[in-house]
Structures are given as structure tokens and as C-alpha cells.
Amino acid sequence: MEQSSIITIQELIKRFPVGKGEFTALNGINLTFNTGEFVGIVGPSGSGKTTLLNIIGSLDTPSEGKAIVMGQSTGDLTTKSAAKLRKKYLGFIFQTYNLLPVYTVYENVEFPLLLLKMSSGERRKAVLDALEWLGMTDKIKSRPAQLSGGECQRVAIARAMVKKPEIVLADEPTANLDAANSHNILKMMLKLNEELKTTFIFATHDDKVIKYLKRKITLEDGKVVQDEFITK
Known about the structure:
Blueprint: E1 5-18, E2 21-34, E3 38-42, H1 49-56, E4 64-69, E5 72-73, H2 79-89, E6 90-94, H3 105-110, H4 120-133, H5 149-161, E7 167-171, H6 179-196, E8 199-204, H7 207-210, E9 215-220, E10 223-229
Parallel strand pairs: 3-8, 3-9, 6-7, 7-8
Antiparallel strand pairs: 1-2, 1-4, 4-5, 9-10
Helix pairs in contact: 4-5, 5-6
């Protein structure tokens, strides 16, 4: 079956001002991502991983070239259009969890759905389904301070997955987790990838994550130096 491209990166360049000069974080990137991929962008710190993820996620814009996500060029979007793209198609997982401390687990996971046109019944079902996927239904009334690091990350994944996005962008999602929690989280992500056909794109240099990838893109000094599909 022919795969469909959902992200196309064309001659992408990103520069940042540094003092009186500038730093080129991404330098002529060309990539295509298909539906249902489980792919990692790897490389040392400063290689451009997070910058590329942010541009795909419409949190940043190219200096030159294009990032076309779900048929839309992120650099051409207004602030409102970019927010709409994120709201409809994208889920984000950060290494620092970014949970709202005053909200319960249920409320944290429900939060992205409040931006969508859903009834309270539809929201409740979606939240409970997401928490069941991640094995967190027993913590539904807990607040982040009452959870372990691994549990917080599972809530963060449930929040990213609750609207069943087309694409999940994960920036160093296992950085604050021990080996056992990391493997549990990655197995859950792989299961969601296979069951829902969600495209997962990681920015990572964690060997634990790399072992699970189906495709590995290596960046060095803002350039793609290797792009390989991994057969298990």
C-alpha cells in the first residue's frame, strides 16, 4: 500500500541572530515524513533537532525554504492559522511534562479538548480512553505533585494523544526518566503508533529511544548526514 506524505521539508534553513552576526541552526534540510512513521531526529546537542521539531510544529518559522505540514506551509501561516493547525493535527510531548500543577490528572488531559467543539460527554470518553491506554485511570483525581516522574510523563502522553492527533512531536521525552520508566513509556507510544497510525517524531540523543525507532535521521551542524529505515 502506498504511504501518504504528511510532512515535506524543502531546502529548510533557519538562522538565529547572535551578537552582530548569526548562527545557522538548520542548513538546507530536505525530508519527507509519511503517515504512521515512528521516527527519531538524533544528533548531539546543538545539531538542530529541537529547532526542526519546532518548525514542524509551527512554533517557529523558517528563514528560507519550506516546512509543509498537512498541506500547509508553516512559514506562511498567521498566528491564528498556526494555532489552528496545532489544535487540529498536532500533539506535543516535552521533557519537562508541562502539566498544570493546580489541575488534576483528568483536567490536565481534558485541557486540549476544551479548544475543540466537543460535548462534555465526548470529552469525558476521550479523556478516560486516553488514561486507560496509558494505565492512569487510578490517578484520575491526583495532581502532578502527587505523581512520580514516570506517571507525569504518562499523563503528558495522554494529553498529547487525547484528541487522536495525526502527528505527535516529542522533544527528549525520556530525559527525566529512569530506564524502566523509559522503556514502559516507549512501548506505550509504539502501541499507540501501531493502533492509531499516529506519526511520532522524536528529537532525542537517548539510546533507549533510538532502540525503538523505525527510522533514524541524524543531524550534525544543521545538516542531515544520515537517514536510515530500521528493520527489526
